[in-house]
Amino acid sequence: MILGANYALIALGITLIFAIMGVLNFAHGEMYVLGGFVTYYLYGLFGLNYFLALLASAATVAAVGLAFERLFFRRVLRITTREESTMLLAAGTALLLDSLSLVVFGEKQRGVPPVAPGVYHVFNAFVPAGRVLIFVLTLGLIGAFLLFMQYTRPGRGLRAIAQDKEAAALMGVNLDRYRALGFAIGAALAGVAGGLLVTEFAVNAGAGTPITIKAFIMIMIGGAGVVSGAMLGAVVLGFAEAVGYFFIPGSVTYLLILVGVIVFLVFRPQGIMGRPWG
Amino acid sequence: MNVLRAVVPAMIAGAVALTVPNGSVNAEQKVLKIGVLGVMSGPAASWGLVNRYCAETSAQLINEQGGWSIGGEKYRIEVASIDDRNDPKVSVAGAERLAYQEKIKYIIGPNVDTTAAAIVPVMEKAKAINIPYAFSKSLYTPPRSNSILGMIASYQAGPVIYKYLKTQKGVRSVSFIARNESDPLNQRTEGVAAAKALGLTVASSEDTYEPGTTDFTPVMSRVVRQNADLIVLSGVAPADAPLLIRTARQLGYKGLLSTETAQDAKILNEVAAKAANGFISVGGASTPEIRSEYMDKFVQRYTKVAGEWNDEAGTKVYALEMILRTLALAGPKAISDVEAFKKAIPTFQVQNPFLKEAKTLKFVGAAYFSQPRQIGVPMVVNVFEDGKFRTLFIGSVE
Predict the structure, then answer these.
(1) Terminal CA-to-CA distance of chain B, rounded, Å?
(2) Which of A276, B39, B99, B235 is most deeply buried (CB count within 10 A of its CB)?
(3) Which residues of chain A lie closer than 8 angstroms to B206, CB-CB?
(4) CATH of the domain at B57
(5) With contact defined as beta carbons under 8 Å apart, do B232 and B258 qualify?
(6) What is the pTM of this model?
C-alpha cells in the first residue's frame, strides 16, 4: 500500500499532463529528481524546515514545468498536430534535465536525515516511521488534488479540457492558461513526490528514467489521461512489485509484470479505465 | 552547489582548452593523449566520471610539473573523454573515435563486462591498450592481450573478505543479493563459489533487483528472512549500497554486510548513516591513515576538479600513473607501438606512490589470467564506522 501510494503521486502528474495536453511527459522522472534535489539542498544541507523544503520542491518544479509549457510545448502544439513532435520534444526536455542534473548536482547519490526516525514493529512486519509519514502525506496530497479537480473552478476547467478541449474553449475556458496550469500542477506533483521520497530512497541525477518508465507502466495499466486510472495503476504496480519480490526469487518479478502488461494491453489497449487511444 | 562552482569553471576551461591550439601553450612541448571511455551519465554515472576526474586530476598535477618525461623528453598530458552510456554500441563507437580519429593508443575504461567485451576487437585492430574496470577473465586471458584490469576483481577480494569474516567474526552462513545485470550476477556466482570453497553455508543467492530500484523492502525482506550471518551485496553500485543496508537494518537484520566493490563514505553516511556501521567494502588508497603525501595532494586537487572527493577514486587513481610510468620504462617507441608497452609489463616495478607504507606497485594477475594483465592495486579492505572508512587490512592479489 505504501509503495502504491508513492507511485500514485508520480502517476497522477504524468496522467494530468497527458489528459489536458496529449503530451507524454518523458521528463517526469527528471522532474521528480529535481524535486528530490531541492529538498536535499534545502532540508538536508541548509537545515530548512522539511515541509518548507517540500513546498519549495513543488514550486521549483512547477516553475520548470511552466517554463517548458510556455517556451516549448505551447508553440509546438500550435504549429503541428503530429503527436510525434510533442513526443520528441518531451524526450528532448528529459535529456536536457538529465544532463543538467548531472552537471549541477554531480554523480553521487544524495540522502537526507530521516524526518520521522524509528521503525514500528507491527505484528510480524517492520514498518519504518518515515514511510508511514510519507504514506499519510501522500494520501493527504492525493485527497487535496482530487478535491481541487472536483470542486474548484480551475479544476473543473482542467477536467473540461481533458474531456473535450473544443467544447471547453467554446464554453470560455482559456486553453493556453489552463494548459499551463495543468502542466505546472503535473510537474509540481512530480516535485512533491521527489521531495517526499528523497527521505527514504535518496536521489541521484540518473534516477529519472527508471521513474518515468514505471510511471508509464502505471498509466498504461490504469488508463492514460484518467486520474482514477493512474491511482489504480499505481496501486496495481506497487502491489505486484511488493508481492512478486517477496514470493518469487530472481528477476522473474519484473519479467512477469512486463509480460502481464503486454498481454493486458493486447486485450485492453486503453487500460482499465481509459478511453481508446486516438 | 559546490559541484556547480567546480564544474562550470572546469567546463569553461575545457571549452577554452579545446579552442586554443595546443602549440599556443608551449610550442616546443609534445602532447600525449590518453582516452577515457566509460559510463558518465545515467544511474551508473559515478563509475565513469570518477575515472575521468582521476585522469584529469593526474594530468593537471603532471602538467604543472612541466609534463611527463619519456625518453628524456617532456610530454604534456591531455585527456579525451567519451561517455558510452553503458551501451556496448556507443562504447564501440567511442573506442573507434578515440583510436582512429584521436589516434589514442591508451584508453582508461570501460566500466562493465558488456562494454569492455564489445570494444576488444576495436582495441586489437587499432593496436591500442585499454584498462577496463570489468572482471570477466576472458578479457585478460590469452589470446587476448590488449586489456589490463584496472582494479581488484570480486573473485579476488571475495575469498579474502569471507575468510577474514569467518575467522575473525565467526561467520558461518551467507546470503547474496545482486543487481539484475551481467557484472553483478557474475560477481554473485563467483562469490557463491568462493563462499562454498571456504565451507560457508550459502543461505540464499537467487535474489536480484532491477536497475533503478529505489524501494528495496520487498526484495530485502526475502534476504533478511534467511537470517544468514553475512549478507553480500554483489557488485553493488555506490548509489544502491546505502539503501540496501538501511533497508536490511529497518527490517531487523543484525548480522554483517559486505561487498567487493568500492564505495563512497559520504554517500553511505548521508543515506544510511549509523545503519552502515560495520559495513565492509574494498577501497584503494582512500583512507587517511594509509595515504602518502602524493595521494593527499591528489585528493585535494581531485576535490577541486570534481567538486568533492569520492572514495571510489582511491582505486581508480592508479590507471593513468601506471600507463605513464610503464611508457617511461618502455621508451618513446611505446607511445605509438603498444607491443613495446606489453614487453615492458613483466619487468615494470616501482614503489607505490599513493601509499605511505613502502609497497611495490606492478602488474599482476598471472595466476588468474595466465599473464600479468592487472594493475597491482593493493587490496585495501575497509570498514565503515561513524561516517568514515577505517582500513581493516591491506592484502594483495598475489
Answers:
(1) 43
(2) B39
(3) 249-250
(4) 3.40.50.2300
(5) yes
(6) 0.83
